[in-house]
Amino acid sequence: MPALPFSRATFPLYLAPMAGVTDKSFRQICKNYGADVLVTEFVSAEGVFRRNQRTREYLDFDDIERPIGVQLFGADAAHMAEAAHQVVDWVAPDFIDLNFGCPVNKVVAKNGGSALLKDCPTLTTVAESVVQAVAPVPVTAKIRIGWDADLINARHVAKILENCGIAALAVHGRTRAQGYSGEADWRVIGEVAQSVAVPVIGNGDLFSAEGVARRRADTKISGAMIGRAAMSAPWVFGQIKHYLMTGELLPPPVLAKRWNVILDHCRAHVREWGVEEPAIRSLRARLMAYSKNLPEAKSLRDKFQHVSTIAGVEEIAHGHIAQSEPVASQRMALAAI
Ligand SMILES: Cc1cc2nc3c(=O)[nH]c(=O)nc-3n(C[C@H](O)[C@H](O)[C@H](O)COP(=O)(O)O)c2cc1C
């Protein structure tokens, strides 16, 4: 197992865990583009016990993805400890990550995810039990800054988790009540990073290399976690790294290269699923996300709604490049004047 790059000196870039998004094929694309640490989509303790096909897919990763963590959620400390133990025996991840941030009703209704931010005694027993159950495998946690505007308790929770033996803490700068609306509160993330000795990984609204550099300079975060920006631009990790090292901003890849990434993603996904049409149909939402920073995004989205084969995506790509490339080069030429 490689050592976990948690230190501020190495400043690791994490791909944020995203259910329905950060599956094996997407994680590997992000890894190729410079993501340092990956985390699986979350799985419940009960899901681990069931060991059905879906759980197997959630827990499946290749060695090239290391260091990788498996994210678990649940509110029953004994179940969580047993599930974490089974996961370590089963797939040997580099770390276990505890989800204390999920805002989804279905999870919160069972006292899981962010619900534990307002139930610190249970959060404590879950964290303690899992840390003990899998030692010496490190356990990390991911939290939001609080439950709602009246309960912003990330510093308190961070202290608890530190005392429980958590190895690193990712903090998403929103409350549960905010969902994904409003802005991430980096002041609170900064306060958490200042107040605990464990490495704090900052998360929320990091969409550019300059944005990450600014947060790094303004706070004591030890690393950055990128979610939605990677969905439309997985190369963002490489851009951030280059900027942090050299101060130079790399332009995004040219259109044809971006399409290569999209097509590689489609092919990897089809290989994983073994059946082309359902695989591509299941990727439509992801294709929509890729279209975000592309010219003629609206017409692309219309086309993606109906695509179900790799040949279909290739056809859309060729048409789009042929249509956009002269415009793009015109724009570049204009910008250079
Ligand atoms: C589609 C989607 C699914 C997500 N699923 C998870 C999850 O399974 N576990 C988790 O801890 N956070 C999950 N998150 C939250 C992200 O990890 C991250 O905290 C959030 O998107 C903020 O980071 P960003 O501004 O870089 O996107 C999810 C977010 C999105 C958009």
Per DSSP, the total helix count is 16
List SSEs in N-to-C order: EHEEHHEHEHHEHEHEHEHHHHHHH
Q: List the ligand species.
A: flavin mononucleotide
The mean pLDDT is 93
Which runs of at least 5 residues are low in confidence (pLDDT < 50)? 330-337
Distance between the termini: 52 Å
Shape descriptor: globular
Mind explaining what this structure looks like?
By secondary structure, this protein is of the alpha/beta class. It is 51% helix and 13% strand. It has 16 helices and 9 strands. Strands 1, 2, 3, 4, 5, 6, 7, 8 and 9 form a 9-stranded parallel beta sheet that branches. α4 links the parallel β4 and β5 (95-100). α14 packs antiparallel against α15 (297-304). The chain is globular and about 60 Å long. Flavin mononucleotide binds next to α10.
